[in-house]
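Hi F.,

I've been meaning to write this up properly since the lab meeting, where we talked about keeping a consistent format for the predictions we share between groups. The idea is simple: the sequence comes first, exactly as it goes in, then the structure tokens exactly as they come out, then a line or two of notes. No screenshots and no reformatting. I'm using this chain as the first example so we have something concrete to point to.
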Amino acid sequence: MIAKVSEVTRVYRTNEIWREDDQHWQQGGWQERPLVSSKESAELVFQRYAFGHHARIAATALAEVLTVAGQLKQAGEALLSPSSSLDQRTVESSNPNAIIGTANQHSSINSYYIQADQLAKPQINKGNSLASNQATPIASGSNQMKLTMNGRTTSFSVYILPVENNYQVLQKIRGAISQTKAALNVELLGDSSNESSYLQISSRHTGAEQAFSIQDIYGNAAATTGINNVVLQAQDARYHIDGSSSIQSAANDIYLDNESVVLTLLDIAEKPVAVDIRPNMAGIKSQVQALVNRYNSLHLMLTQSVGLLSSEASQVVMGKLSSLPLEQIGIQLNSDGSLRMDTFVLEEQAQFNFAALELSLRGFGGLAAALNVAANKLLDPPSYELLDQGQTLFQSFNNYQFSEWDDQPVNTYLPVPLSGILMNDYI
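Output, unedited:
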């Protein structure tokens, strides 16, 4: 911006020297000389005429106004965009140890009461703990077993050598079960010193349909290792929503509001858990406060630029507020024309009348939309049009007049093409 302001000053100085040379020509003929012969002569020109100083003030004021207008536009667009905090949701649970959840954008503002009677669980079989390095008691030779799951039975077998220990046999059984491609997790576990080992088999998914059984066909591998021992039975979840009849599900996830809300059951609670889908209040307050701050900055710049900028420039912005229901959304208009956000009213409106709040902020004619339009009206036209063209120096700059001698007609000059030159190409 400094370079632009300097350019304005140079244009003004050109005009000043042009006028001075023209006066010399009228008095005694044209005398060719450089525009500025020295630093001292340039300073003399600057001191003699106020154009350069006025240009710097005007350019700086208008640059600041347009910069803050751009920031106001950005703050308005943040509330108007599809990713606005007005579209975001938070999930509040009265018992987060029992139920948690997530909500997508545009989820309905709502409250649910969930009573869980039973959680969905996988089946878990835990085998016997066997001394890892001891010779296996499982019968030598081929041991065949069968796995039944989801109505399907698959047989598998292992061949046991007399010299193998328990750890080696458990490794073979784990590999054989994995090769069945059943939806099971098979883990070979042991104590902290690895002196004993056992197999733990669990279904990968929850729900009663995930139950499975393992039995010996011939040999005693299943019975000896204990992999047929069920320690946790597969079961479905059962819960009630807002006092409804019991709902049964294979999973602990509850999908609501066209699946835009997902709740997850973590534990059984003695009483119903209240789950509230709420606006992103922290985000809304932050974005509304940013809009208010940007407006106040622009209002201050326009107020400080009285006499340089046209009254229409201020009216474009401040006139938008007169028809808006500001107090209903927690925005107060101060006596000096600035705005102040009342957090309590804003939160109350968001909690109890969110639709009205959203309409008042970004609906047609809402605060964000109105200020966004106002900012565009400052940014879109050529910037020089925002100047107060009634200023004496502005008129002198654009239409220089002087009289050669008394009783002589007034001559009007426009030394350089100045239409819009004050600001249009600089800011």
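Notes:
Residues 328 and 376 are 25 Å apart (CA to CA).
The first helix runs from residue 2 to 28.

If this format works for you, I'll send the rest the same way.

G.
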